[in-house]
Description:
By secondary structure, this protein is α+β, with helices and mostly antiparallel strands. It has three domains: about 5-205, Hypothetical protein af1432 (Orthogonal Bundle); about 215-260; about 265-360, no CATH class. The chain is built from 15 helices and nine strands. The strands form three sheets. It has a four-stranded mixed beta sheet. A three-stranded antiparallel beta sheet has the order 2-5-4, with no helix packed on it. It has a two-stranded antiparallel ribbon with strand order 1-3. Helix 14 (about 315-330) links the parallel strand 7 and strand 8 (about 340-345).
Amino acid sequence: MLGLDLFKQPDCRDYLAERIGHWRYFATGDRIPETVEHGRGHVQRLLEFTRQLLAAWGHTPDTPKLTDHQLLVLLSALWLHDIGHSGDRIVFDDIITSADGKTTYSVGEDLDQVRACHSLLSYQIIGEERDFLFADPPTGVDKEKFVESVRLAALFHRRKMNPTEQTSMVPNIVIAHGYTDGEVFNKTLFDSKAFSLVVALLRFIDGSDNQAERAGDPKFYEVLENALKRQIKALEIRAEEPGNKATSDIFNEQIRFKEAQQGHYEKHRLLKHVFFVRGVDDNLAPAYGKEQKSKTFVLEGYAVGNTAYGGYSDEDAARKILHEWVQEYLLVEDYLPFRFRVILIGKKGRQVLNTQLTKDEQKVDEKPPAWWTD
Length: 374
């Protein structure tokens, strides 16, 4: 479950076993309770995906696999990549830069900014708390480069991060380099190819957790939705009260954020669960990914539809799963060793969805679709 048996050597395994006992308490919840879960349950599901993916990869003979050091960084980043949900400020450096000359950026209590910047905040916290988060690593592993490997992987785990160029974030914040740039990977334990593989796996695995368990029990959602409506009403009243005109913009931002959460769970409720297997027959159906020698196998992502959910239909599930999962893959396909196809198990039985994706839908959006709020 924890992925410790995946290591070839005991030193990395023993180190991670000790650290998980420490890190698990950093993944107990979120600062933003209105959104889907980013805590320990999310991490456990990502670890399951990692095992499934590496098992599929392991059945491909004569193919280079992850080294113990790559696996150590990947599993560490899986535990810590969302720690930024508890962050509050960013200190600019040579990677995260300010377009207006400031030295710091405070997100304060703006929960929308916390979510938008949480990968940057994870990078910040991992760097500032390195001595608290990390014990001395296994023999032969440089601690500074190990910590930088984990924090940079966490920084680049979101889909909007460009692998080869600078990325503009919230106003006046720029990620100065892509993760394939020497300014980034030279800080890590790896060369460009090895580090890009770790980041690509983290992004793809993290983007695969789209299932009902992440949204919680349907009854909980009903209670949350009702609470959000009451909170929105209270904020609307406060925004109009005499003496609050100067801060009405803040109230209105909070209203906008909370209104967006009312439909936030829908895409997750469409699926009971998802899992990975190795494609048994690579000629079974078209799969995404470039036809090249580096793509050594086909990974199948199974999405089991939550047909008991009243908003579910095969068409709804297909459109959202297609756009969601396939685009996560397409963004990092150049750095992964497999091609990918999605299979929906729903009212119509087994459907291979990749053949239904139009050319326009295959394009990677710079701006996520309206229903994307994660």
